[in-house]
Amino acid sequence: MAAVALCLLLGATPALALGIQDVVNQVSQTQYQTYQVTVQNMGMGYYGGQAYDQGYRDRLGAAGPGSLGNQEARLYLQDQFDDMGLNVSVHGTYSNVVGELLGAKTPDRIYIICGHYDHVAGSVSSGRPGGDDNASGTAAVLEAARILSQYQFESTIRFIGFNCEDKSPGLLGSNDYVNNVVKPNHQDIAGVINLDMILRPGWDSQPSHVKDLNLASTDTDWATTFVTAADTYVPSLLVNSSFVDYGGSDHEPFEDAGFPALLAIENTAYEIWHYGANAYYHGPNDATDLAAGGTYDYAFATDVVRATVATMAGEAVLTPEPATLALLAAGGAMMLLRRRRSK
Ligand SMILES: [Zn+2]
């Protein structure tokens, strides 16, 4: 309060005026698209070099190091999180990649933004690049991390790329994380947003189908929190407010353990059951650069990232930094509000 009064006296904008909308507005469609295409191309040796070039994009990996594409994707996630200044670790049997932004006030209260970086098995001939499932969600985790890591929050936010979501019987990485990291350490998971398939809203074979985001959750309060944040800060995003509870992705192990969790996805269970998944689901044309699959809606997916950022900025509680307040007290410049984290 004292800092605010001083700012008003000095004619500057108070630090507390830094709002959630300012954070949300930093989300970039161009950067999201770059992340998505890069993750989609893992296994081509574009990032890790020739050692990772296997001629196809299969990112499957079970126990052990996983395929070359899977390893390259993991390396990319680690490097990106590291560049953002997050605390990076690779966890467990399935090599989940975790980037952590430690909370300034209640670090034991933990929020999670996650998506799986693996994809179903493929081969040179069948090549399953997984551009929507789930380079789309992995890129969303990266863009949310890029933005949120530039600010400080009261609670901790973890960004996680889970592995082996698509490895039968499914959800191997997230189950391992909940059972061997979260539960034994009695961690307080305050809310999970899992992003899995967000680039094909509406229905490919049903052009008239509404282009909305669907939420699957057993926790109506948590899902409503997301909808409210989206309505407030991302009015261009249409979110279906009838929540259908179905598992089938990495939010499920958290739900089963009693934590608030949701899946953000392009279609509802009803749509899948009645019309089938999108035409390119788990197929060779689930990619940006193939004519048949070139139907990605990047504007929509970027709005999903914005809604995710808005939800977490509110729930983890965006805080002015102590250093910023000190500067303000001394009449410092507001342009220093945004922190650039060192590597
Ligand atoms: Zn998936």
Characteristic key phrases:
disordered C terminus; disordered N terminus; 9 strands; binds zinc ion; Aminopeptidase; 343 residues; alpha/beta; seven-stranded mixed beta sheet; 36% helix; single chain
Account of the protein in words:
There is one protein chain. This protein has 343 residues and is α/β, with parallel strands linked by helices. It has one domain (2-333): Aminopeptidase. It has helices at residues 2-10, 20-24, 29-40, 68-83, 131-148, 172-182, 220-233, 252-256, 269-275, 298-315, 322-329; strands at residues 87-91, 96-101, 106-116, 152-153, 155-162, 188-195, 214-216, 261-265, 318-319. Strands 1-2-5-3-6-8-7 form a seven-stranded mixed beta sheet. A two-stranded antiparallel sheet has the order 4-9. Strand 1 (87-91) and strand 2 form a beta hairpin. Helix 3 crosses helix 5 (131-148) and helix 7 crosses helix 10. The longest helix is centred in the middle third of the chain and has 18 residues, at 131-148. Residues 1-16 and 331-343 have low confidence and may be disordered. The structure holds zinc ion.
